[in-house]
Amino acid sequence: MAYKLSEEKIVENENLVKKLVASLQAPLNEKVEQMLVYGVPEYFLAPASGKIEFHGCYIGGLVDHSLRVAVNLQTLAKNLAPSVYDPKSLVFLALMHDLGKVGDVGVPMYVDNPSQWHKDKLGQLFEINKQLPYMPICDRTMYLLQKFNISLTNEEYIAIRISDGPYEKANEKYGMKEPDLALLLHFADRWACAQEKRLA
């Protein structure tokens, strides 16, 4: 049986994200709040993937995953790069790294799979919305951020761009040239995925 979050946990996660966003430096906090509450409120209910064998394949999985990445990223930075990164910047990066998985304004990326066979036999609970033009997740993340006038530093951009590390062919040119922040985000993300796979 697929893992799922209780309604209480979904609300708890949403409230925690809103609290963390409110703690960001102005005007970033206001821009992110506007985006999440009015632009892409799907963020709070979106799954992080469409198949059970991947991670966060449940309603609210994206936020659940992003919060886990935030904890991991803070822990890694504290132990591997103490006093280098602003903890609030790390929270922003973790919460936004997979933003593209919401889709676009009014057009969710993941929709319920109408095929019970695919759900039962392949564990594919959600499918990609056919109304959404294709973009890699990281590109859609950048697209949404700029759509809401949220800018990134060079290091933040590269960290999000290559957060999936060597699992994306497009990232191979970054090999052995990754900025420290990109490595920390990648490790935090991978560890969160491993944690989520153990939930089922």
Strand numbers in spatial order across the main sheet? 1-2
Question: What does the average pLDDT come to?
Answer: 93
- Stated plainly, the CATH topology is called Hypothetical protein af1432
Number of helices in the DSSP assignment = 8
The total domain count is 1
Structural class: mainly alpha
Percent helix, as a range, is 40-55%
Provide the low-confidence segments as ranges.
none
Large-scale geometry:
globular
Q: Would you mind describing this structure in some detail?
A:
By secondary structure, this protein is mostly helical. The chain has a single domain (7-197), classed as Hypothetical protein af1432. Helix content is 51%, strand content 5%. It contains eight helices and four strands. It has helices at residues 7-22, 28-39, 61-80, 87-96, 116-122, 137-147, 154-161, 180-197, and strands at residues 103-104, 107-108, 110-112, 126-128. A two-stranded antiparallel ribbon has the order 1-2. A hairpin with a 2-residue loop joins strand 1 and strand 2 (107-108). Helix 3 packs antiparallel against helix 4 (87-96).
